[in-house]
Design goal:
The protein has eleven helices and 31 strands. It has 621 residues and is α+β, with helices and mostly antiparallel strands. Strand 8 and strand 9 form a beta hairpin. Helix 4 crosses helix 6, helix 6 runs antiparallel to helix 7 and helix 8 runs antiparallel to helix 11.
């Protein structure tokens, strides 16, 4: 039945036994689904078959063979819908056959539509010699499957069609959905229209090995990045997209034997391989690129290039998979091993994540290598400059504070800073499982705010950074909480990544809650309760505080205030509901069982049982 139902929508030129409905909205009371038409001159043609309803909508006078139409399919299965299996079967069993050699997969994103789990697929190709793009949403409501398909013939104006289709997606209503908020189509700005998304590739990066050569007087860096790749798809592939971070310029790409042909498309370039790579086959590419201080301006929390020092605190490595899906949630992807090599002036040092494998000076240059080992970082952050270290060794963790030549700190301040970092590290180790990391490097890199990575912390001048201890003369509990939050990112966001709906909540709210909880251990429960009340008050003071669900808040700077306030309130409500023992057990199991993997919203709900899920759902949905 599944194959027949899924093939029906694509293969039929029009549904059987249909009647034309000229109305602003199509409504199906049996399924509890309603859909507006994209334009006033479009009509619906609903048709019903055994256990399946298909509704095609198109311009009143247009021919279906022109491929300007959309469709809604409604069907029910005996068991809950296995959404990923359904979409994979549609792609491999229907679309690839229908589009043949012209088939190209552009995107496949997990998201929510009206609070229900969904997968959005975008493809391109040709049907009966008509070139088109196709955008398709597959939505699961328990055992009901709802598919919305939108077709874009390339010979017609793309913008106007996309505007109408956005009205369709925004106006889709599904009874029983926890949110009346369908997800709109996505426009990334790289090309036009609702399917203007960065193409998705079957290739996956298994490992990176990058060489960074920094020219201090010019404040520029040349980089050579080798990517080890595997074809995770089901068919041989002879090309793939390379995505560069906006600040970089691509110079060339080499394969195992030769320089490869590029087709540039702004931030995305297509690489044509000399031969097809079979399913599960491997290959490697070396990407040569450069970055300079006079290039595209970016926020200082991500990048700084000067003759005195430099840092990159963003995901700058070339990618063959999107980092975010079309709703702004973290996309699922393998955790790649990373090696960073640096070629620097001899009096400079490089600080990165992982293990310092080599550090040598030769012919006026310092050659340094950092390798990720037991914990795979989510971002290949690094800082370089003529730093000097003030190191404090202690039980369980060594803390090294790296300062610029003209920076100075008192020994007492460094002692206090190291003690506070070590206290937070110990708390996280007990709560989330200990990490095999022996040293935390704190770099006075000049960032406007603290940024935490795996065993690595970037700050401005340490004396102006988050307070070294809650009762220090330089700060307050809230400033200490900022430091503790960034230390906790060695776990949340790195050791434990996230993907799918709710990933922003996991990545941002769990470190924020950790800061509050660790401060409670140091200062007492009264302080913890006060910080929780302040977070709840700050949340309710945000504009439209009650209208944004945590499951759909995207990974973005704009969502950070919500995630650090409402997100903390949600975790505290969970702790009170399930009890301290169950709560600690659930946190530890999440962090340990998903180490170097990805945790999803379903994993979180399952870890705390029905009682915990019942408390979280009003915050999440």
């Amino acid at each position: 039945m599944l194959g027949i139902a899924l093939a029906l929508l694509v293969s039929l030129p029009a549904p059987q036994d249909t009647t034309t409905l000229d109305a602003p909205v199509y409504a199906n009371e049996a399924y509890g689904v309603s859909l507006p038409r994209p334009f006033d001159d479009w009509v619906f043609e609903p048709g019903a078959g055994p256990r399946t309803t298909t509704v095609i909508f198109h311009p009143r006078t247009a021919l279906l063979r022109d491929q300007l139409w959309g469709a809604l399919i409604l069907t029910t299965f005996p068991a809950p819908v296995a959404l990923r299996r359904v979409t994979d079967q549609r792609v491999t069993g229907t679309w690839q056959r229908l589009l043949g050699r012209t088939y190209e997969l552009l995107a496949s994103d997990s998201l929510t539509v009206g609070g229900l789990p969904a997968i959005r697929t975008a493809m391109s190709g040709a049907i009966n010699h008509v070139a088109l793009d196709v955008e398709e949403y597959a939505i699961a409501r328990d055992s009901d499957l709802i598919i919305l398909q939108l077709r874009y013939p390339r010979g017609l104006p793309h913008d106007s069609i996309a505007a109408g289709y956005r009205r369709v997606v925004r106006g889709l209503r599904i009874r029983g959905a926890p949110l009346p908020q369908p997800v709109a189509s996505v426009d990334t700005g790289d090309s036009e229209g609702a399917v203007a998304v960065v193409p998705r590739s079957p290739f996956q990066a298994l490992a990176y090995d990058a060489l960074v050569r920094y020219d201090a007087p010019a404040a520029s860096a040349d980089m050579a990045v080798r990517m080890d790749l595997v074809n995770g798809g089901e068919t041989p592939v002879d090309s793939l997209p390379i995505r560069l971070w906006p600040a970089f310029t691509l110079d060339s790409v080499r394969g195992p034997t030769s320089t490869l042909v590029l087709r540039s498309g702004g931030a995305v370039s297509w690489v044509h391989l000399p031969g097809a790579v079979d399913p599960q086959g491997t290959t490697y590419l070396t990407i040569f690129m450069h970055i300079a201080s006079g290039g595209r301006p970016l926020p200082p929390r991500m990048l700084s290039l000067t003759p005195r020092s430099a840092y990159l605190a963003a995901d700058w490595l070339p990618r063959v998979q999107p980092l975010l899906d079309s709703t702004g949630q973290a996309a699922p992807a393998p955790r790649a091993a990373t090696t960073l090599r640096f070629d620097l002036p001899e009096d400079w040092h490089a600080l990165a994540q992982g293990h310092l494998a080599t550090d040598a000076v030769s012919m006026g240059r310092r050659l340094t290598t950092w390798r990720s080992e037991d914990v795979a970082p989510s971002t290949a952050a690094f800082a370089i400059g003529p730093y000097r270290a003030m190191t404090r060794r202690g039980s369980g963790l060594t803390v090294s504070v790296w300062l610029a030549p003209d920076d100075s700190l008192t020994s007492g301040f460094v002692d206090s800073l190291a003690d506070s970092i070590r206290a937070t590290w110990d708390f996280c180790g007990r709560a989330f499982g200990r990490l095999p990391i022996a040293e935390m490097n704190v770099v006075a890199a000049g960032l406007p705010e603290a940024r935490g990575f795996v065993g690595l912390l970037f700050v401005g001048h340490p004396a102006n950074a988050p307070a070294a201890s809650p009762d220090s003369t330089s700060g307050s509990p809230l400033r200490y909480a900022a430091l503790a939050r960034e230390v906790a990112r060695s776990w949340w966001g790195n050791s434990v990544a996230a993907s799918g709906p709710g990933s922003a909540w996991i990545l941002e709210s769990f470190p924020a809650w950790t800061a509050v909880a660790s401060l409670g251990v140091l200062e007492g429960d009264t302080v913890r309760q006060r910080l929780v009340r302040e977070a709840e008050a700050d949340w309710r003071s945000l504009p439209d505080s009650g209208s944004t669900a945590l499951s759909v808040a995207p990974v973005s700077d704009a969502s950070t205030p919500l995630l650090r306030t409402k997100g903390v309130a949600a975790i505290e409500a969970l702790r009170r509901a399930v009890g301290e023992a169950k709560f600690r057990e659930g946190l530890l199991s999440l962090a340990v069982e998903h180490r170097n993997g990805r945790v999803t919203l379903d994993d979180v709900l399952a870890a705390f049982g029905d009682a915990g899920a019942a408390v979280l759902r009003p915050y999440l949905y």
